[in-house]
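Wed. Picked up where I left off yesterday with ABC transporter domain-containing protein. The coffee machine is broken again, so keeping this brief.
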Amino acid sequence: MTDNVLTARDLRCRYGAFEAVRGAGFTVRRGELLCLLGTNGAGKTTVLDVLRGHRRPTGGAVRVLGLDPARHRRRLAPAVGVVPQDPGFAGALTVAETCELWVRLRGLRPDAGAPAEVGLDHRLTVPVRQLSGGERRRLDLAIALAGHPAALLLDEPTAGLDPQSRERAWELIRARCAAGAAVLLTTHALDEVEALADRIVLLRAGRVVAAGTPAEVTAGRPHRIVCAVPARLRDRPPPALAGAVAWRATAGPGAELTVTTPAPAADLDALRAWAAPAGLARVAVTPPSVGDLLREVPA
Ligand SMILES: Nc1ncnc2c1ncn2[C@@H]1O[C@H](COP(=O)(O)OP(=O)(O)OP(=O)(O)O)[C@@H](O)[C@H]1O
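Structure written out below (tokens, as returned):
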């Protein structure tokens, strides 16, 4: 039996003449969290809509637990928890009623404990229209997590949450993953990627332009050395370095030097030798990050 819970193969999706997804492929296995990343309009929500059976692809195929979600939406509903980008709650229903209604719509028995999991147990009798944006997001998450689904499709699940609620949401998502759920999550928050992602898929204009673990997608990319340089070194030409050098004036007498380099250890040694005996101050060496990759991907 395969461990693949979510699969997309050469997925294509059109809105009229515009092709929003142009041959995307990936898998998410049991117990794995994949972050689907990309700038606004890259095609992330479209991919999630196809996986939740709300949109038929115009090419390629997706499978959720081995089934075509467009054909087996009802059968898959109990096994797939979704935090949609824009939930459609009725404002007049209370938190408890909303939770019960949506959990039933997923073909599950109502779970009175679901709101408590996301810290909404004190708001059960409050109409949804009176919830804050962050509280609504937590209600979405409560409904998605109900019934311990095998797959979670989470479209910016922590958008608008305060820091404490985000960390609580991360804990819940991590726990579900550890218990075997396959999670596909979109986010624009880099700390969320760092906190959660086992693997990332980066979309650009509907195509996958990078895929792998954070270490894999950043491998071979440059490190950044930032250091403060005493004023009198400002006029001394820097040594020959593997990396590119940029100076920045600072408020004080010295300057800040940034070296973007594929050889951080050798360049740092060369800089230290150059700066002796006064030396460098506030030296920070930053390894490549997924954030660097995202910043380089144009829309
Ligand atoms: N119903 C629609 N009709 C026409 N075009 C659409 C429709 N929905 C999305 N699009 C277009 O498809 C492209 C992909 O949109 P999508 O919502 O999937 O992007 P996204 O990566 O989720 O963006 P964001 O980060 O802003 O949520 C965009 O150019 C968008 O304008």
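Quick read: The first strand starts at residue 4 and ends at 15.
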